[in-house]
Amino acid sequence: MISADEIKVTLEKTLPGSMIQIQDLTGGGDHFQVVIVSSMFEGKGLLDQHQMVYGALREALGSERIHALALKTFTPEQWERLGS
Predict the structure, then answer these.
(1) pLDDT at 84
(2) How is 12-55 classified by DSSP, letter by letter?
(3) pLDDT for residue 83
(4) What are the extents of the domains in the chain?
(5) Rg of the chain on CA atoms, in Å
(6) Is residue 16 within 8 Å of residue 5, measured between CB atoms?
(7) DSSP readout, 56-75?
(8) Reported pTM
(9) What is the crossing angle of helices 4-14 and 46-56, to 10°?
(10) 4-76, superfamily in CATH?
């Protein structure tokens, strides 16, 4: 089990300056949805963006502290276009 705060701290180290929203989907601390808006995603495809996030969370995923992770990644421009 891992807390949303732990995930956020880990992601902030890898993607500084990003807007990160985390939702525990089941309340059990192992199924999360993460929305990240980062300028570090600019010029990268969706797969590369997600690999950046998975890389940052490799330890938690490998130890099965995170069982499911739904990702939504955006550049600031994409986020702005969505009007979010």
Answers:
(1) 59
(2) HHHSTT-EEEEEESSSSSSEEEEEEE-GGGTT--HHHHHHHHHH
(3) 85
(4) 4-76
(5) 12
(6) no
(7) HTHHHHHTTS-SEEEEEEE-
(8) 0.90
(9) 120
(10) BolA-like (3.30.300.90)
pLDDT by position in tens, the chain (length 84): 889 999 999 999 999 999 999 999 998 888 999 999 999 999 999 999 999 999 999 998 889 899 899 999 999 999 999 985
Query: 2: Cβ–Cβ under 8 A, 6 or more apart, which residues?
Result: 29, 30, 60, 65, 66
Token pair of 47 as six digits: 């797969």
Q: Which of 40, 3, 35 is nearest to 19 (CA)?
A: 35
Across the strands, what pairs with 73?
Answer: 36
Q: What is the total residue count of the chain?
A: 84
The type of residue at 66 is I
